[in-house]
Amino acid sequence: MPDKKSGKPTAALEVVMVDRSATTRRPNSPRMTGASVHVSLAGEIGLRIVRGDYPPGTILPNEAKWSEVFEVSRSAVREAIKMLMAKGLLSSRPKIGSWVEPKERWNLLDRDVLGWYAASPDRESFLRAVQELRHMIEPEATALAAERRTDEQMTAISQALHDMDQATSLQQRTESDTRFHIAILRASGNDLLVPLGVLIESALNHLFAHVTREEDNLRYALKLHENIEKNIRLQRPNMARNAVRKALANTDDIIARWSR
């Protein structure tokens, strides 16, 4: 980050030299075309930042360089940089350029940032962080859902469970599993949990896709979800809370086995 007096990066965040491959286009990268070029470019740069190609303090290549590497207009580069600034990944100043902000300033609950984390080499750490968040939120949210859910909300939860059971592909099961947990957050009746559920949806999708791939007994996992649904439907908060904890513990075991 620039020093306010000198306008130059402070010593703690001096320019970091990066591997040349970080400023080249991947051979298999599709050409960026259409109205959302800046979105695609922001995704490419954002992924490189999150996976560590550009550590905090790094001064990014200028507009001309990005424009040359990805064969896009400078206006598209500017829009991409603005997107990444809005997500807290970058700051920018005239005559200095754009630099990577410290990780603690990143909006880690942003859908795109979560997606980049899920695609980064440190996926195990990402999965564990998602699980920690779920342990803090879902048991109590589920207990609240058991107390407060409406008939309409209960229908949404039950339908998601049914769709999990009937899924014929990994994608279908993952989408239904995510929808099940998001529906529970909505049924909790706590307005603050609703936007949080939307924000972590991307993270849950990546987590469930991995867990489903590794699960040896999908029927057992489904039974855990059936127990959650049953206790919400019968409005038994304590049992619903414990049912979620059991399902989370099962997911913890799967991640642990995968990481060995």
Automatic annotation (TrEMBL):
InterPro entries per the record?
A: GntR_C, TF_FadR/GntR_C, Tscrpt_reg_HTH_GntR, WH-like_DNA-bd_sf, WH_DNA-bd_sf
> Has keyword Transcription?
yes
Alphabetized UniProt keyword annotations: DNA-binding, Transcription, Transcription regulation
SMART domains annotated for this entry? FCD (SM00895), HTH_GNTR (SM00345)
Q: SUPFAM superfamilies given for it?
A: GntR ligand-binding domain-like (SSF48008), Winged helix' DNA-binding domain (SSF46785)
Q: Tell me, what is one Gene Ontology molecular-function annotation carried by this entry? A: DNA binding
Name used for this protein in its record: DNA-binding FadR family transcriptional regulator
Domain HTH gntR-type span(s) in chain numbering = 35-103
Q: Does the keyword Disulfide bond apply?
A: no
